[in-house]
Structures
1.
Amino acid sequence: MASQKRIAKEFADCTNNAPAGMSIALANDSDVHKWHVTLDGPAESVYSGGKFGLVVTLPPEYPFKAPVVTFATRIYHPNVTNDNVGSICLGLLKPENWKPASKLLGVLEAVRLLLVEPQPDDPLESRIADEYRRDRAEFDKNARAYVQRYAKGLVKFDGTNVGPDAGAAGGSGKRSTG
Amino acid sequence: MPPPNTPEEGVPAAVSSPPARARRSARNASISSVAATIGSETQGICVGSVGDLSSRTRPCVLPINYQELRYESEVDKSLECPICRTPFSVPITTKPCGHTFCSVCLLRAHQMRPVCPIDRRPLDIDRDFCKARVIHDQLDRLRVKCPSQGCDYVCPRELLAVHYERYCEGTPVPCPDNSCDLWIARHDATPDKGCLHKYTPCQYCSKQVMKAALEEHYDRECSGNTVKCAECDVDVVQHRMESHVVNDCPSTVVSCKWSSYGCGKKAPRRDIWAHEKKPCVYQAIGRLVKDREEDRLIISELRARLSTVEGRLRMSEKEKTERKERKRRQASSNVDNTENTIPAFVPDLNLSNSPRAAASYNNGTWDSPEDYMLAQFERMETQMEDLRKNIHELDGLHSMRLLNDTMRLNEQIAELGSKVGVIGMHTTWLMNVQRQSRGQQRAVGGVGSPLGAFASSSGGSGATSGATAGGVSDTLRNAPDNEGGRYYSSNMPPRRNSDGRGENPPRL
Ligand SMILES: [Zn+2]
Ligand SMILES: [Zn+2]
Ligand SMILES: [Zn+2]
Ligand SMILES: [Zn+2]
Ligand SMILES: [Zn+2]
Ligand SMILES: [Zn+2]
Ligand SMILES: [Zn+2]
């Protein structure tokens, strides 16, 4: 309906001015409500060298409701759930913060920024957040190990590279609601 | 669910005659009334059926979805709604922060969260919105394509509703079959064709196809009974071959599309495409002539509208004089003169119960009291619209004039201010000189004239004269620091107060 035009424009915006290291495509050509984004780990972060898959899902009520962004690739990060869902805690997307006029390009930028600067004060994984604050060297080591293990090679969006066995590398921490 | 539409957008008040009720609510500036209109079903426009109550259950044409319109050229970003990112339809502006949105978009966002969708300022639905009139004109002028399928008509957005609702053959209208609630293009909506939404097997490929989509099926996907075009090697359904050769085949020899403007080129269609793209030198002329033709079309359309309006006016005038005549006759027979004082435009509200009124409507041009009422309403609405426009114009003129006047006054005030400042400076300087000379006079002993004292002091000790010179030059140096002269005009201390302390002239 009406949102179709808006989504088309947002998509054009994002593909034409894609943030550094991002490439954006539709999950399938007939549905504009699901995007697949490939993100190179920012060079200035511990995730550099990795390739991460992001799934952007636009609800039917978009732009009146916020889009949902998840990591399809496992990542060791205080603001991303350490499971095969990969939920992200992004202030911009919280229902009480979402503005119908916000642009998706800004959302993608924010996700990229989150890799450069994790926000341990607003965590989804409180254990990782603690580690990030107290023992940065250990955090960096773990994050790099995750990159080596999950974020190398072809990005898959079907969930096959976020298998449930992944707990071995970092262990799933206690979760807090972010 | 029918898409939300914008009934008021670009519908010239004089031409189409939607149910007056629906229109009145749409014109109200309050957003909650817009909400009511969006929710209601009486938004379609039924041409020429003012009193036809039976047709109100369903709009006469599929309402235009303004957010889905395609524009002839790129529309300026400033005319785009930040929510749907299409040119505004029925723009509305937030009062506290001045952000503009389509009414529909803002309403929807407001239902989710009662704040501005841009800066999240809390907004009250009844108080904090006003119509965005300034950009209305710009939006009206945007050239837009007709949304009907298969129609190439392009016109200013303002005129789209007229074309779409009255003239366009492709406009979706209710299916002639009463049991079917789908829409069908106007040229297919004839009772003899019946409901075209029923499926029928294609006679060439036996696939089930909706009757209305049969032509498209032949063109696009039909696989039965096809033949190869001898010229261009494309598979074509046999009975479409003729139209393929005439309209599509790239090998058919055709002439340039600007041929009627002087281009003599004739070639196979594929060469002509390249030639037209180059572009053909006659294109400029052709475009010009086409534009002129379009203008003429618009003019004639407007003229037709004018004549209907005039006709209606004449009718109502006739009716008015007839009524007056009747009243006079009645008055003379009844010898009851008070009836004459009722103004002509006040309709009798007691329509059904008054036999006299009913009789007068039945004899006149109007079929029923309701019709008469609606017509009157409509007339008043047009008048109100005119008045509103006039007021706006006057308002603009007024504020312009005000601005001009205040600007001049402000300039004069500033000039006066600076003059007062200069005078103030002079006064201080003079006062200081006087004070100092008096102080010296006193120091010398108060004998002789001030002039003499001055002369003697300058001839006296070098220290005193040095101090005097220093004092004066000090004052001079300080004077220009004092800007605007405000201090002098309002706060200048009376001379007597500082008289005793001549050595300390008032400083700033
Ligand atoms: Zn605002
Ligand atoms: Zn909008
Ligand atoms: Zn049309
Ligand atoms: Zn039908
Ligand atoms: Zn067929
Ligand atoms: Zn051919
Ligand atoms: Zn030509």
2.
Amino acid sequence: MPEADVRLDRVTKRFGSFTAVDELSLEVPEGEFFSLLGPSGCGKTTTLRMIGGFEEVTSGTISLGDEDVTDLPPFKRATNTVFQNYALFPHLTVFENIAFGLRRRKTPIGEIRRQVASMLKLVELPGYEERRPNQVSGGQQQRVALARALINNPRVLLLDEPLGALDLKLRKQMQVELKRIQSEIGITFIFVTHDQEEAMTMSDRIAVMRAGRIEQLGAPEELYERPRSEFVAGFLGVSNLLDGDVAERDGELVQIRLANGVIIRAPAAATNGATKVRVGIRPEKLRVVHQGAEAASDTAETNGLDGTVFDASYVGVSTQYLVKTADGHTLTVYAQNLTSGASEALSEGQRVRLTWNPQHTFVIDDEGRVESAAPLEEESTT
Amino acid sequence: MLGWLRHHKGVVPYLFLLPGGLWLIVFFVLPLLTTASVALQEGSLASGYRLTFNFGIFPEAIGRWDTQLLRSLQYGLIVTVLAMLIGYPMAYTIAFRGGRYKNILLLLVILPFFTSFIIRTISWKFILADQGFILGTLKEIGILDQGFRLLATPIAVISGITYNFLPFVVLPLYVALERIDPRLIEAATDLYASRFQAFLRVTLPLSISGVFAASLLSFIPAVGDYLNAELLGSRNETMIGNVIQRLFLVNRDYPEAAALSLILMAGILVSIFFYSRLLRGQELTI
Ligand SMILES: Nc1ncnc2c1ncn2[C@@H]1O[C@H](COP(=O)(O)OP(=O)(O)OP(=O)(O)O)[C@@H](O)[C@H]1O
Ligand SMILES: [Mg+2]
């Protein structure tokens, strides 16, 4: 890992007796697109505001590169911020909004003109110099806010839900745009969002936050494929979770006896030495086959569970099945609609077998679960 | 009636304006016309008045009372500046730092209004009295000379007026400042503005409408005030309000009193015109 651009060391923020951010440590290397993801109120904004200098830390240190900036005011930090609702200056034109930082640093006017022009080109808004913020659209305001921050050539750009106010289509478009700009100028982005899809598509790495702490930090596919807690598993998408006990090791795999007695296999590394575990499988990793037809697909290398389809809903690219196992668990399955027509489709009441590759099984340590177990439906946002 | 209205929807807004419009006609336009007509009449209480369109009364009145007219405008200006210097920080603190005490603090600002204007001004007379508890004590300790006085000086009159109209300055400023999103100030400091620059470049320009309203609400009544000069001043602090009051109620020289009232009004309107030009330029500067 290259030298850390932003480093938080056991940063804590309390509001009165309430701890909003709790002993949070993280390092972001230069040029990374890093996201803070988590449900409402988990402390994302507070963390970002402490990095920007708008909120004092209660304890801990924050550094940018080699410099300890914990006690510096915002105007002395090499960070710039894109605020949640843009916070454009309503009394100034687009030009003056973007030029604000350069003017404060006494840049000559010729240089300001040149740089504002090139910024407007970067965010694709040339010709808007003389408009007021209330005379441009929401998406355009967003670009002005971005240009206003980027023109100062910050070491780190902080973005607090910058796309939150945009409609879905514009949002997707701006996601691509933001990625393009980030790779073009190559500076570190710290991006706050509570939208897991947005975080997954844009980030190099994501810190999933919960109640002021980082629950898990990693690359998007790592968080998705190998969540270490039920919370992360639930926050990043739908998953099927089943209780079990680690039985015995089987080479690279480990055997886990589920509550209903069925033995399945999972990557040994995933268990981390725990004995009571929950195993998880993402719905798109499951394959549904008619019972009796399993001989063809069921091999020693796959895991399998029997059940009954009790709901099938067609959602275009895929069909979602809800399958109930004999002992009453409900599993969700996404089956891709490879062919058109209902020939493949399974109907309700049909007895099926679910199979999947053991490598696609993730394992959550059940002993540590008490603390992190929470009603997933309430906390996850979709 | 209602059926008719349903077919003439365009009339409805004017109906809503009717009470206010009538009020303005009865209590503003008519008195103004009466004042103008009184100013242009000649005669005396005994022999009766006749409308002679005596426009000469205006230059005459200005010539006679120029000292008091100028003094009033001057006091009005000083009061406005002072009230702004005191009121802006007050309004700023309440708006940005008031937290949940905002309403209580605002209540405290208007609390003096619960007693009458005259009583409040008379109590200032006690506070500023030559041997009152402030000056008396200071003289006792020897910090002040025995001959030192505040009453019957411009200081007393100006501070009295400033005190009386301060709430008129704080309230509109508060309203303007309260509307400012604190994130704009954060954004300014994020963009290399020191806290003072952020104030100068963002907070102040965004509160300029409040500054304008507050200055009018203190300048206009201050220029026309007579009670403070009456109770706290001497002959040397006589303001135009005192002159008008005396002409109307003591000398019964109605035409001249009416003429002076109109001159005062014109003076205020002209001042406001230039002031608004000045501020309009201000808002746009960066
Ligand atoms: N100034 C403050 N005073 C008291 N509590 C605060 C303050 N600011 C934030 N909090 C609390 O700290 C917690 C974290 O707030 P924060 O704004 O960081 O959440 P967030 O993760 O950004 O949520 P969201 O997705 O809703 O924006 C919340 O419970 C919030 O109520
Ligand atoms: Mg937030």
